[in-house]
């Protein structure tokens, strides 16, 4: 979506609400696809949960990824990624322009942190069908994971 005030790319209100780091118990079953490009120019897909991403505002997100993964290395190298979110009967494709943030010295859950500007946000809605689900997960230890997610979101905000 475009913000007509300054023509900058922004998340829709629905996407912002989904990614704003609140109500994590209600979002525990949702996962998103995070696409990057390898050094060999192959697409690479990873999953990211609601506890690893937070929208600070409609145009800026923060991501906390596991250290030294293919996705983290790709994002560090290229400064780009695409977040794919299936929600609200739409497939949403969010191009991100990334900047790696310094590590937090006293992080309870060390992550490689990125700040992401929304470079483009496109919502694809089918006229002939409703999109009813995307990637869904079931946490094996919900209490432990939700606590870690909440702590990770707070660390991403700092």
Automatic annotation (TrEMBL):
It comes from the Bacteria. This is Pyridoxamine 5'-phosphate oxidase family protein.
């Amino acid at each position: 979506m475009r913000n007509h005030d300054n023509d900058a790319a922004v998340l829709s209100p629905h996407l912002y609400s989904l990614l704003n780091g609140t109500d994590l118990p209600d979002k525990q079953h949702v996962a998103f696809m995070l696409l990057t490009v390898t050094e060999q120019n192959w697409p690479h897909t990873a999953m990211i949960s609601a506890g690893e991403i937070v929208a600070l505002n409609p145009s800026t997100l923060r991501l906390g990824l596991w250290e030294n993964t293919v996705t983290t290395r790709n994002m560090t190298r290229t400064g780009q990624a695409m977040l794919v979110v299936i929600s609200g009967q739409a497939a949403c494709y969010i191009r991100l322009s990334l900047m790696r943030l310094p590590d937090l010295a006293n992080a309870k859950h060390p992550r490689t942190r990125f700040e992401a500007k929304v470079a483009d946000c496109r919502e694809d809605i089918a006229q002939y069908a409703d999109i009813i689900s995307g990637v869904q997960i079931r946490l094996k230890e919900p209490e432990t994971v939700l606590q870690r997610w909440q702590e990770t979101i707070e660390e991403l905000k700092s």
